[in-house]
Amino acid sequence: MTGWQVRRPGPIRGRPLDQVSMPVPTPAPDELLVRVRVCGVCRTDLHVTEGELPVHRPDVVPGHEVVGEVVDWGGEVGPGFGLGDRIGIGWLRQTCGSCRYCLAGRENLCPGSRYTGWDVDGGYAEYALVPAAFAHRLPDGYLDEELAPLLCAGIIGYRALACAELPEGGRLGIYGFGGSAHLAVQVALARGAEVHVMTRGARARALALDLGASSVQGAADPPPVPLDSAILFAPVGTLVPPALEALDRGGTLAVAGIHLSDIPRLNYRRHLFEERRLRSVTANTRADAREFLDFAGAHRLLVTANAYSFDEADRALTDLREGRVAGAAVLVV
Q1: Across the strands, what pairs with 136?
Q2: For domain 154-280, is the CATH number 3.40.50.720?
Q3: Model confidence over 68-84: pLDDT tens digits?
Q4: pTM higher than 0.85 for the full model?
Q5: What is the residue extent of each domain of the chain?
Q6: What Gene3D superfamilies would the database entry show (predicted)?
Q7: How far is CA 58 from the centre of its chain?
């Protein structure tokens, strides 16, 4: 099979990805072998490729928003999967199941967790493996290209909304408007929120307005009203102070990315006083995934998916880095 490997982590302009020939993987007893149809292009893939995340597996195949069909499985996989079933593979690949976090329903914090496209090969290839217990059933009514961004961008945005503690009918600020944000906004609007978007790209601002945002402005500009909650999707630490300043008393800012550039010095009274909160979002649980995919099945989401051919993986990541993608990007395998 053909796949893309991160051979030399570094700036995407240095072409750290190589397209190579690889053997088709053999499923372990608890795994499914999936023929990849499409794979979403996530900003975390960019962090892995550019070395902003430490190398966990040399020459890893990135990609963790995988839509494909089951073609084989290991001997310990129970009933429930059949040949040709369309399933999804997400970021969270494995947890220990026995630590205090797993037992408390907080498996996203498991110290032994492993991740698709970082610890093990992901979906920038013609075939991929997934433990059956971590494979996702997908809602009907969506094209493959529309489903792929749901598997990380959608799930993480859904968890970020929960972490932001947005009150019913509250005012939500979104900083950065890419694949995850354009889905989270739709969930928030469906729940009656008023949404204000701060982002740099003209196309992203237009998409936000089309989806129902009440206002759009520059990435660091103040919104027109105080915010009850905010989510920072852009991996830009310098946006943390203006986002905190935009919060009303008791508001929460949730930082949704796995990587963030350094945060400037905060002023206690201006940024945190009056019970403003700053918190991170770390991966997701399978319960998060099930809830969000059920929501997507019940509420038809508009997924803006920009398709790239499989041979254009490096161009897709470059466009993502340069802010040229409005919505999400997907590789069609």
Answers
A1: 88
A2: yes
A3: 999 999 999 988 899 99
A4: yes
A5: 2-151+283-332, 154-280
A6: Medium-chain alcohol dehydrogenases, catalytic domain, NAD(P)-binding Rossmann-like Domain
A7: 22
